[in-house]
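Sequence only, no structure available. Ideas?
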Amino acid sequence: MNAHTPSYPAVSIVMPLYNKEREVGRAVRSVLDQTFADYELVVVDDGSTDNGPQVVAGCDDPRVRMIRQENAGVSAARNRGIDLARADLVAFLDADDEWLPEFLETIARLRAKFLTCRVFATSYFMRENNSRPLPAMVKGLTAVPWEGVLEDYFTLASHSDPPLCSSAVAVDKSALSAIGGFPAGIRSGEDLLTWARLAVKFPIAYSRYQGAVFWMPQDVASRPGRFVGNEEDMVGRELALLLASASPSHRHGLQKYIGRWHEMRAVIALQRNQRRDCLRELSNIFGSSRLTGKHAFIALLVCLPGTLPCNVYHWLKGVRNTRLSGGMTNGAP
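Reply:
I predicted one. Tokens follow.
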């Protein structure tokens, strides 16, 4: 479909669901509370073994429909939802996250305002347990209420929290088709790879309005597949292939972005006390971009005995979160 008609919604929302019975009700309510109401919500139950599907089934709203499939992973669930989407604009919301009421309204405004763009996103809050939500640190952009086109996504993403969050983005269906949808077979990092593939092909319209809340896992062990020491780094491999075919305008920023990917893996290995894996990821950074003082500090932590590397890291993380929460802006949920 090439145009919105009364028969079809303006936006299709795809929500993958797997064992999120405690959170999915919150996510669905945040959709129903949107100020922009012309949408459908497609929930793809990816073989849940808890009562999450029953929670969704109890929602009495004709705009909500649920599709069930055998467990095949989050990429397969999102791709199934994309295939079934009736709108030509697809927004994504994970079942354990939530939107603020004006998220879809902001996305619709971005699409109407920036006609050359195919990807539309807002900033977001990060929240852990019952702590105060913290705004994502996206450096180099004018403060709220700035809206515009990201001129250099990869450079921005290489020194910020991810500008694009899987629960704060919408993409034209044709653009998703052009990159083959989400990569099947990748257990984690599939979203970051998808945004990278989109960024090399299409301009991204962005709003500094924090339109979503990303609920962070309590610890690294709660992130299945984010890092397994002996597992092939498929995202790193695909990013390297993307770099080989990237235009000169993207190459420098993409090199930095790949370095940031390996830095993230090094930090997670440090948290899990996987010292050899941490050092390997640091060596991968050296192969893709320039090492920094931060990388040297991570290497120093690896040399500390026992659980000291993990303890120091979590202490530093607590200091950062305390500093950020002291500077919260008005409007935090």
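Residues 1-5, 219-228, 319-333 have pLDDT under 50 and may be disordered.
Hope that gets you unstuck.
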